[in-house]
Amino acid sequence: AQKITQTQPGMFVQEKEAVTLDCTYDTSDQSYGLFWYKQPSSGEMIFLIYQGSYDEQNATEGRYSLNFQKARKSANLVISASQLGDSAMYFCAMRERSSGSARQLTFGSGTQLTVLP
Amino acid sequence: NAGVMQNPRHLVRRRGQEARLRCSPMKGHSHVYWYRQLPEEGLKFMVYLQKENIIDESGMPKERFSAEFPKEGPSILRIQQVVRGDSAAYFCASSETALNTEAFFGQGTRLTVV
């Protein structure tokens, strides 16, 4: 089974609107972390936001927020007030903490976001 | 994050040659992770190293690939006798501890095998 599932290969959003990028995960660990990264066309991986499994509040970083629903095993990224520079590939990732290979990140297949002027 | 330095940014090798990819972690970071990104895919874990030790190489192909992180100098990912299927972007990430809430990536090395 896929550990990280991103069901939206591509998304479009109008500039200045909000957009939600979906991410569901599969783990039997109680302790884990969820990450979102942005990969623009230039190729680098830019860390956006982190959510720990024990964090009670949803993580926020500027225009980015993570809608964490633990029971549903979802960790959707919300980008508010989209900008043209937000056009990029977005990856959801998970780090499980209690398994033998705990320290690596497992990535989803990504969502290509295009912001329309 | 600009703090993790990878070089070269682009590398072209002919089939059968060796490729050496370098990663200098952020200052104070002793944990290094290598990932591979095939075209149109997400990143896949390859190997996790601490200084002078390979901790987890469960994602490394059994043959032709090796990694090291010496006491002095950068971490090296070495691919011997490259084949076309090795063409990919190779990313290095570093962290201060094993369980940091952030993992900073370098800009990647894009390997093209011709």
How much of the sequence lies in strands of chain A comes to over 45%
What is the succession of H and E elements of chain B? EEEEEEEEEEE
Proportion of helical residues of chain B: under 10%
Listing every helix as H and every strand as E from the N terminus to the C terminus, the arrangement of chain A reads EEEEEEEEEEEE
The helix-and-strand class of chain B reads mainly beta
Query: Would you identify the regions of chain B where 5 or more consecutive residues have pLDDT less than 50?
Result: none
Number of strands of chain B: 11
Mean pLDDT level of chain A: 92
Radius of gyration of chain A: 14 Å
Tell me about the largest β-sheet of chain B.
7 strands, mixed
Coarse structural class of chain A: mainly beta
Q: Provide the residue-averaged pLDDT of chain B.
A: 91
